[in-house]
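Thought: the user wants the 3D structure for the chain below. I'll pass the sequence to the structure tool as-is, report back what it returns, then summarize two notable features.
Action: structure_tool
Action Input:
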Amino acid sequence: MAATVVEQKPSLLRQPLAVWAVAFACVIAFMGIGLVDPILPAIAEGLDATQTQTSLLFTSYLVITGVAMLFTSWLSTRIGARRTLLFGLAMIVVFALAAGLSQNVESVIGFRAGWGLGNALFISTALATIVGAASGGPGSAIILYEAALGLGIAIGPLLGGLLGSVSWRGPFFGTAVLMAVAFIAIATLLKKDAETPPTPTPLSAPFRALRRPALATFAITALFYNIGFFILLAYTPYVLPLNEMGLGFTFFGWGVALAITSVWVAPWLTRRIPKTHVLWGALLLLAADLVAAGLSTGHTGALITCVVIGGLMLGVMNTVLTESVMEATDLPRQVASSSYSAVRFIGGAVAPPLASAIGGVMGASVPFYVAAGSVVVAALIVLLFRRYIRHVDHHEAPDRVAEAEAITQGEDL
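Observation:
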């Protein structure tokens, strides 16, 4: 009698140790995005800096991250994924430590820029590494990556608030220690790169990739969406009359909401609704939430609620937008990731100083309305240029060529 073979369904939690090592490091790397949120007022007071100056802690970080993203695939295909990851982590350790030792806000801004360079090397390589090595296909890998993003963004403000209640320098020192732990984890659990180096990517590849209509559409959508994202993230701490721990818990709730919708809600929606419909629908709901946030300035409880609800929308957007980008073209995943990430981070870099300047001149509510308008523009881009991206609505399981590409990328570990 022939034996019956039962094929087990791939599990999100059944991943190689290499994937978990990178995911762990991703959590810590993404903590850096929200880490300074609860301590922005404390830094301004401790270093006698203005609100606009402290908002540049986000701008310097994101500008360098975005620009460097255009060159990370060129570097990683020459020195290998493992070396690129370790080099990026080492830079974050050094610059986070230097920021904590700084004596003026200009130095902190500069060291945050160096931190952003290390983050760019790590993040773009980590996404391609996880997608290539994870079991269960690109969808599971991206969910894992976005879960790490959500967890990191959630823990970052909480850790920042906890350590920042002692000293504004504490979060920077804490990040340096945790990144050192991540460095050890990557060095220990990731196998050394194969002797045969990967095929080098031309320096012009990420720039040429943006000529693809589908990738360009998603990148420009992400640019306007990230303006709304980072106004909510970087401007709200100045409006909420809370101490470091209060801000930490507020954005911890925001990050938890983001993680929940990233891992569970977004996949549920895309199984039932076309991805492009999910995108513009989530963007319009986020715009409505930002308008409500603008109307809630002066009402602490209502504004906190808007922040957490915004996290729900952001989680859906992050997962669906990232997955759509990876499915939009036949480009190597590292190239697509670098091009898209460069544009979206540059968009986010504009938001913090813009919000501070507008808020100082036109009132505390206006930056939220600007954020809402930017998000509406992102929704209109999805709708008006849907002919370039609607093929992602019908994307099915990757074919053998895509699977082979994923296996090949996984061999870089």
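Final Answer: Structure generated. The chain is about 80% helix and 0% strand. The domain at 17-410 is CATH 1.20.1250.20 (Growth Hormone; Chain: A;).
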